UniProtKB/TrEMBL annotation:
The gene is rps9. It comes from the Eukaryota. This is Ribosomal protein S9. PROSITE patterns: RIBOSOMAL_S9. One of its GO terms (biological process) is translation.
Length: 140
């Protein structure tokens, strides 16, 4: 029984990584395949509104390593907008590629694909209109 279960595990090798950006969270799973991108059950192109910029951002780690057609990507993305989700997918994909082969880490790190962008919206303060915008000053 153990021999059969270990063979099944080898065929179903999935690698996962989590990426975050602003308020977006993307859980990325890499499955050996033909290079399809699926986000929340939709094709990646239609989910990202056929934007070449968003698609380029999502595929950046795989194109850097030359693994475009090696893995199918399945993503569950939530929160934020398309820009935040695309950047979160990129980070999750880069982290998943590091679990596949630790040698990928130095290549991805040198291109800045493993750094989480920690900039988030600043909270509104009382007495102000937004985070820093004050009401108009009146002298008299």
């Amino acid at each position: 029984m153990n021999i059969i279960s270990s063979n099944i595990q080898n065929f179903n090798m999935t690698y996962s990584g989590t990426g975050r950006r602003k308020t977006s969270i993307a859980r990325v799973r890499l499955i050996p395949g033909s290079g399809k991108l699926t986000i929340n059950g939709l094709s990646g192109e239609s989910y990202l509104q056929f934007s070449p910029n968003y698609l380029r951002i999502c595929w950046a780690p795989l194109t850097l390593l030359g693994l475009n057609k090696e893995y199918d990507i399945s993503v569950k993305a939530e929160g934020g907008g398309l820009t935040g989700q695309a950047d979160a997918i990129r980070l999750g994909l880069a982290r998943a590629l590091c679990t596949i082969n630790p040698d990928n880490r130095s290549t991805l790190k040198s291109q800045g694909l493993l750094s989480r962008d920690s900039r988030i919206k600043e909270r509104k303060k009382y007495g102000l209109r937004k985070a820093r915008k004050a009401p108009q000053y009146s002298k008299r």
